[in-house]
Amino acid sequence: MPEQREPRSHDAVAGQAGTVVFDLARARRETPGCEQVLHFNNAGASLMPQVVLDTMIAHLELEARIGGYESADRVQDRLNGVYASAARLLGCDSDEIAIVENATRAWDMAFYAIPLGPGDRILTANAEYGSNYIAFLQRARQTGAVVEAIPNDEHGQLSIAALERMMDERVEVVAITHVPTNGGLVNPAAAVGKVAREAGALYLLDACQSVGQMDVNVSAIGCDMLSATGRKYLRGPRGIGFLYVRREVVDRLEPPLLDLHAAEWVAADRFVIRPGAKRFENWESNVAAKLGLGAAIDYALGWGLDTIRARVTALATLLRARLSDIAGVSVHDLGVERCGIVSLTLEGHEPDAVRAALARERINVTVSRASATRLDMDARHLPAVVRASVHYYNSEEEVDRFCAAVGALAAAHD
Ligand SMILES: *Cc1c(COP(=O)(O)O)cnc(C)c1O
Q1: What's the gap in Å between 229 CA and the centre of ligand 1?
Q2: Which domain holds residue 248?
Q3: Is 208's C-beta closer than 6 angstroms to any atom of ligand 1?
Q4: Please, which pLDDT band fits residue 20 given cuts at 50, 70 and 90?
Q5: Is 130 helix (H, G, I), strand (E, B) or coil?
Q6: How many domains does the chain have?
């Protein structure tokens, strides 16, 4: 656990409960990028903590000195430990974890493994991620399955009552996004889990934006499969992601792609698929990134996911309130529960122009476009939004500076 200190104005802040003291000074000290940029692009890729950087560089140096295979052998125990860390993070067992190149590949390996036939139903939600939706459409075209979106409730999250009404024996899979790429919404993932489990449908959760910013526990949620990435709220490296597959369903899922790591070639005409979730991996991997992922997970667990969530939520709430006070700014986040992603538009300024103007002041945000979450964005007539995503190492002073910059842009238009 991080050391606890008394709050000092902007140096530390009381958590939501008013009892937890968050050691902001330590978080910033251990994040070298904090001195360079005002980074509100944590939903894109967070700034890595020093320990992740050190872990990766040390392994790359080892590879350069003694050889790639030889250094992998030397760190074998630590590599096994990465699976144990991911399992601890998600509340599952190590053999239920696959580590792959990114969250999309993780999700694809699970989704394309689900048997589908004509008339089978795929249920998703309005905030679904573009890559996932493209896969739904492709498999619907290939198999005759149909894809249907669960309507939102009055708060803009997926409606559990509507989901209950939609369930029948033709629903093969419920595949939703926990936290969308384009806003602060947190979908009611555990309530979906109850409905899916009762109806006997598979449940695939895209937790790419939620893992690392809140406690995501697969048994509490009741999902069968879950995908996550390294570089976003977990603060790990790029080019690494992971998949959880529940032990009880893994044997029903034949990976769409196999190699000699995912399966064993046992006779000239025969192969046997590997047991457990590693059947969704492939042989070659970025060992330094894998170790970096492990370091990032351990670092997040050290802070505590509930502590992280309280801090991220408090900062995002502050940011939304401050932005709403600026004339011309609209904040677009939906849902009952909101997280660290804040989406906004500024009247009279294209989102790309806002991003570029902020970048000139070394403020990092990104632009979420309709094509990444089309059902949701089209329904709200939003072609694009500016996405400002905060993490626990961001400061209240940065929220002030960010809002001053947005305010100056707004004023420049008047
Ligand atoms: C970023 C993102 C993904 C894709 O993750 P990658 O690691 O880039 O493959 C999937 N779903 C959501 C909701 C995302 O925000």
Answers
A1: 7
A2: 53-302
A3: yes
A4: low
A5: helix
A6: 2
